[in-house]
Specification:
219 residues; alpha+beta; six-stranded mixed sheet; 30% strand; globular
């Protein structure tokens, strides 16, 4: 039976990454992805786009394969992969595509993503997409880039500084990958991290506090 993306629940990614399926059971990650972020800067010094690559764990990848393999040949063809990409894109759009751009404490939204692609390699699903800030951002404004699931269901991890890249920035600007210490982050924010988190993870900033981030500094 050809399900098609219209057949999936409104929260879509509950079948995939869990976004929108927030409950007390989501107080820790269930899906894991190894990530890469490239921030490209235009010659005029403004942020042009963010390029994302997410490689998902094998268990989750096999679940996606079985769920979207309409012809049951254990291979996702191009149209089936496009369906996966469409479901993911539509489902995480309301969460800012699991990314946050902070400029001086202000959140900068991104434009709708139009190029999300999915491939399978060595038993793992790999997701590719680019996003563009919805308003101009000067790299000299020293933006901070976070990639995380606010529902705390999916862990998006950067395992090396080489996976957070700043391209085309002026020579006086550099990127630093910051990996928060969980104990320190929780201790510093103890008052705001209440038992409400375990009832509503999306309503709490713990996932943001624990997320690896790229900080831009300019001399």
């Amino acid at each position: 039976m050809n399900r098609g993306k219209a057949a999936y629940p409104a929260f879509g990614l509950a079948l995939l990454m869990g976004a929108g399926a927030v409950s007390s059971a989501a107080a820790h990650p269930h899906v894991f992805a190894e990530a890469r972020l490239e921030v490209a800067v235009r010659p005029d010094g403004r942020v042009e786009r963010l390029r994302h690559v997410w490689r998902f764990d094998e268990f989750f990848s096999s679940t996606v394969l079985l769920e979207f393999d309409d012809d049951t040949d254990l291979i996702l063809d191009e149209s089936e992969r496009d369906t996966v990409a469409d479901v993911v894109s539509e489902s995480i759009a309301e969460f800012g595509y699991f990314q946050r751009i902070d400029v001086g404490g202000r959140d900068i939204p991104v434009r709708p993503v139009k190029d999300m692609k999915v491939i399978f390699q060595d038993g793992q699903m790999i997701l590719f997409f680019t996003s563009e800030p919805a308003e101009p951002i000067a790299v000299t404004d020293q933006p901070v880039f976070n990639v995380y699931d606010p529902t705390f269901y999916t862990a998006i991890e950067f395992y090396s500084e080489d996976e957070m890249v700043l391209e085309g920035a002026p020579s006086n600007c550099a990127a630093t990958m910051i990996v928060p210490d969980p104990d320190e982050a929780i201790a510093q924010n103890q008052q705001s991290l209440t038992e409400a988190f375990f009832n509503d993870p999306a309503g709490n900033d713990l996932s943001k506090l624990l997320a690896t981030r790229m900080e831009i500094s300019c001399r």
